[in-house]
Hints:
The chain is built from 2 helices and 5 strands. By secondary structure, the chain is mainly β. The chain has a 5-stranded antiparallel beta sheet. The two termini are about 30 Å apart.
Amino acid sequence: MSKRRPFSIGDLVRITMLGSVHHGKIAFVLDRVQYTRLNPHTHQQTFTATDLIHMSLPSEDEYVPHPDEYSCRLQLISSGPDELDDRGRQVMVRAKWLEHVSSVEDTKNLTT
């Protein structure tokens, strides 16, 4: 399990993916898309290629959210001085390529 704090809707983030046209840009998190995996408590065995060919697909209830794998839908609020203005544009970015600038939880603590 990751030691990173998960991103929440409303967080202010910076895109850290090197080589991306959005690298270094600031954005708000609008939504999270959680990836799933097979439940490790019900699927502990390994399978051969032949087993996989003859197996049926697992049912939807056999999947659980992956704790560290998700993407965020972001709304860009900054752009570089030599770039087209991307402010307001929405993009999807994997969470591992984001870092917190400001968290909604931190803001809530300031107002209470």
